[in-house]
Amino acid sequence: MKSAQASSSQDFDHNRLFEEILAARERVYSVGEATPLQQLPLPDLDAQVWVKREDLGPIKAYKWRGAYNAMAALTAEQRSMGVVAASAGNHAQGVALAAKALGCQAVIFMPRSTPEVKQSEVRRFGGDHVEIRLIGDTYDDAGHAARTYCEETSGVYIHPYDDEVTMGGQGTLADEVVMSGKGPFDRVYVAIGGGGLAAALACWLKRYWPEVKVYGVEGVEQASMTAALAHGSPVELDYVDVFCDGTAVRKVGSITFEYCRSLLDGVITVTNDEVCDSIRTLWETLRVIPEPSGAMGLAGLKKHYHTGEIGSGEKVLTVISGANMDFAQLSGIAQRAGIGSKQRRFLRVPIPEGKGSLVEFLEQLPEEISIVDLQYGRNDSEVQFPVLGLIGSESDYQQLDAVLAQRGANASDVSTDEDVDYRIINYAPELFHYPLFINIEFPERAGAFLRFMNEVKDIASLCYFNYSYSGERVGRALVGMEFNSADDQQACLQRILAMCGKNIRAAREVSDETFYRLTGHSRG
């Protein structure tokens, strides 16, 4: 197997990487242009925040820089033997772009789970110059297959990060930061997958701005650089979360590790919810929707700010490293994101059995807390345990704790519980008397649903509730109520129908088939 450049594991002279970045400046702009820096308006943060817009590059991510530089640095003879790469998506697009521009052939191994948008873009950029082979479920599976193929065919392997020529290409991003005239920056936050971009960025920026602090940011369940630094050398993680698929690397490179160990000022970890919250921030401020790993740097920046690491008035930079995401992933991101400084939390709250008890509790919630999810099913117990999905600030939650303490109730945080995540609502339909299940639409504004419930709580008891905020102006809930008699049931139904166009927009009973599936018996 041949490599675009062989590197001694003992030779990590920073000058070497600096020189590779210098050389890359003469190559990469054959296929792309410099991307802009843009100030991020964040009035809640007492700092100047700037973002490097790599989502505006030719492949909507920074990886074109390293891929093209590594392939352009090969001899014509090396390229004629065939180029091989492994990638979860963005590096593959860079290789495809370079293969077409340089007139060579590339075989690209990608995990089967690679988002379709990234696969289709590889084909679009490379055309007849690329062949995609889907192997395994992770980048590492694809990487092993690619290296085996290289051994068999004498192809040239273009590593996505653990190669100084590739890293040199990525470093042109840092050169553009210096040349922009927006610096110097006090701090820089950049996502870490294999570590190539973080190493190159730190190498270049520290040469020009020796006082700058550069931090790598990783997901809590894909923190391969954090593990390597703790161990003293790269180690393979047993498990890698792929929510941020662009940084889902089981083991960092041996070369990138040495550079990151000597150049970075620290590595911090962020949760998927913190990443989602940063995606929301970029949408609300710049109307930009990055892929999850593309917002990881901002998530790290915000985490450091809220823990007091970033001083007042500091000038801070982060990189939107990519924006190649399947559209279907957006709904899950929206559900996990907070709003501004407010965070999502799921609580399982004890509520006494009885008419209006849940409504009474909801009315006691702090005014600034928003209900974005409600999961409830009646079980055989004097105390019921609905799950409330809430968005609020830390002070809001402190007020909620006071409400719970006044009620003598202890709520459990179930934000990471599997049954909550999968919306598994347990209930005992044999306990329901004269049940009525209705699909209700109501204006998605504060208090609209509570007003509806107050209209019916005198004759109805909740036995089932399934609601999740969708971001629309209309809220939709499947509500189950039970009554003391069939007459009460029909009276309530007529009262609800009369409310349509007032407190609620629309209401309709579930079908006979749905009623049977919900209760286990036919509608009487």
From TrEMBL:
Pathway connected to this protein = Amino-acid biosynthesis; L-isoleucine biosynthesis; 2-oxobutanoate from L-threonine: step 1/1
Which cofactors is this protein said to need?
pyridoxal 5'-phosphate
Q: Which GO terms describe its biological process?
A: isoleucine biosynthetic process; L-serine catabolic process; L-threonine catabolic process
**GO MF terms held by the record:** L-serine ammonia-lyase activity; threonine deaminase activity
Give the main EC class.
lyase
Amino-acid biosynthesis: present as a keyword of the record? yes
Q: Which CDD domains match?
A: Thr-dehyd
Which keywords are on file for this protein? Amino-acid biosynthesis, Branched-chain amino acid biosynthesis, Isoleucine biosynthesis, Lyase, Pyridoxal phosphate
Keyword Lyase present in the record's keywords: the answer is yes
Database matches in InterPro entries? ACT-like_dom_sf, Ser/Thr_Dehydratase, TD_ACT-like, TD_ACT-like_sf, TrpB-like_PALP, TrpB-like_PALP_sf
In the Enzyme Commission scheme, what number(s) does this protein have? 4.3.1.19
Signal peptide location: none
* Pfam families the record matches: PALP, Thr_dehydrat_C
Catalyzed reactions: L-threonine = 2-oxobutanoate + NH4(+)
Residue ranges of domain ACT-like in the record: 436-509
What does the similarity note say?
Belongs to the serine/threonine dehydratase family.
Q: What is this protein called?
A: threonine ammonia-lyase
Q: What is the species listed in this Swiss-Prot or TrEMBL entry?
A: Oceaniferula flava
